[in-house]
Amino acid sequence: MAKLLISNLGYPRIGFSRQWKKCLESFWSGSLGQEQFLTEMKNLRLAILQNQKDLGVDLIPVNDFTFYDQVLDMATMFNIVPKRYKHDPSGPVDLSTYFAMARGTQESIACEMTKWFNTNYHYIVPEYESGVQLRLTQNRPLEAFVEAKEQLNIIGKPVIIGPFSFAKFTKGEYGTISNYVHQLVPLYVEMLKGLEKELCEWVQMDEPFLVVGITSEEMKLVELVYQELKVSVPNLKIMLQTYFDSLENYEEIIKLPVAGIGLDFVHGYENNLKNLEKINLPDEKVLGVGLINGRNIWRCDLMEKYKFLQKILQLRPADKIWIQPSCSLQFTPVSAKGETKLAPFLRNAIAYSDEKLTELKHLAVAFNEGADHVSAAFNESTNALKDLESERQKIKVNVDLENLTAIGIERSHSFESRFDQQAANLLLPRLPTTTIGSFPQTTEVRSARNKWKKGTLSNEDYEKFICQQIEKWIRIQEEIGIDVLVHGEFERTDMVEYFGEKLVGFAFTSNGWVQSYGSRCVKPPIIYGDVSFKEPMTVKETVYAQSLTKKPVKGMITGPVTILNWSFVRDDIPRSNVSYQIALALRDEVLALEAAGIKLVQVDEPAVREGLPLKKSDWSDYLDWAVKSFRLATCKVKPETQIHTHMCYCEFQDIIQSILDLDADVISIETSRSHGEMIAVFEKFRYSKGIGLGVYDIHSPRIPSKEEMSDILNRGLKVVDPKLFWVNPDCGLKTRNEGETVAALKNMVEAAKEVRTRLT
To answer: Which of the two residues, 397 and 549, has the higher pLDDT score?
Structure first.
């Protein structure tokens, strides 16, 4: 009998103890030399491969490991380096140039960063400039394949972003996408021939854009590309991998000259199964069955998955099937073995990357050796999910579309009426300056928090320390001349985790880290049950900050949709209902801040665009409940209370009308890192409420000049009414150090004053 094989699509690069992050930041700070950096990264990379081998994975991905981002790896491998980095185009791309593109330097701003589809992972956008000489600077997939073979005797499956999707990720002056793709194909051929020569059997060619929806012209382009790859590299087998939704153009794509096609049977379950049952793949092709959810942490029901697998096995023989996660496991933490502090009902119900691969192994054993060999594992999964459901029934919060109207989601006054009352209440100058909320989380801040959590620093001493930090930064903001102040969020580890810890229905992990961007890792909370409000969460610190100054201080809250999208969410009820529950809980917090005398409340929603479904046909429903969630949280304040929100690092133009529909009085939005693209959007769309176009990128250590920020302000004022215009950074400042923060904010305030004087 043919053996059912286990394939993995990608594995977390950060390491169980976030060794990757620590290594990167030590190298950036200069405390780790390049040779030692490369050695430590290699050791981690090999350990990751060996772990997957030990877990029973048959087709182990290589080239999914990166020093920063996989799209940046592809761009530098193809010599797509903007001229501002002064890179010698005839030579290799060294680490300093690579990290300059990712993080920027004092001389050159970083490349644009944006979200990877509807995840919280950020990739570096390739920038194609006219005159660039595309060439293969190094064959990264070949190097990864050879390393795995020579060091560990692993015949890996190189993971490569396909030419069509890579072209779609790119921005710049490349003309038509067809012209650009045809420039890329010879580089792919050269790369794949190197792998073919080393007797590589399979490569995983990721083409996630094939689930988004492509035109007939783009479909013809995809057909031409894969025909050329087949002719040029005939002995190498390509697994065309898709994920995050169901495949578009199914009938055409299954005819492509590739050896296999990977489909997501979690997020694209219904349509992918319907298509497969209607028209099966050609007999010679392998079907990659995305069986286990690669984007959430819930344990699967093994019996349910086994029954589904039996259904697939009726359509295709076992030797033409790989079982695999629905997508790369980079979106889930490494291993749940360290989660000893979770309640047993939760600990038993979660599965991180290693546990997901173990689930696949149980399913493979059930088929290859018989279900009785893994009956204990099957029973364990069933019982764990029953225990979880029992806990969920203990607290019930009913918030859905049927009772939203009764609860209310409208402000009592129009924006125009509110604007006049707020102006009289706040007495701010033209072009008021503010920040997004957080200030540097220094070593001192992190150390105090860790001591407090371990019990070596008393509650009284910790609160005293936080108050000292708040006072320090209130004085700094006053000295700089900022108009609307913030308390700095020193008591918060993470903008979602902090609120989840204070709401009913959330749980928190010890080691549930995932990569967000670069070395920035986050630990998403788990929403396991119905969500409700317990007590005020931000009032004490905000009121204390306001007591220190006559200038207004903003209350800072993370919005319901962002809390939802940046958490691991229960999957037994609609996401919209979870969002409404969170919104209703946050409404109590907004009103508590208002009752305490806070005149401005910022409800951050950086993840609204991130959660947008990949298919446009699904956008309307999502945006409807996302907007209603925000309004549910904010609509009951008085007209003179000013509601702010913030969004960053995504394609805002897709949702600009929905942003307006939020009915926030002021929105701050990223502008600088996308090189002012949002300004062009406002040339076409008249935004009629308050808006702050971010004047500098906080993810880079560089300090932008006053002139640079003035230029962004002047460009923005051409398309935004000056009386509605605010001045702020792109995002929060927690990742920057004090010197960078103060210097940049001084320049920002000076730029605002200069432009303000000209307007007057």
So the answer is: 549
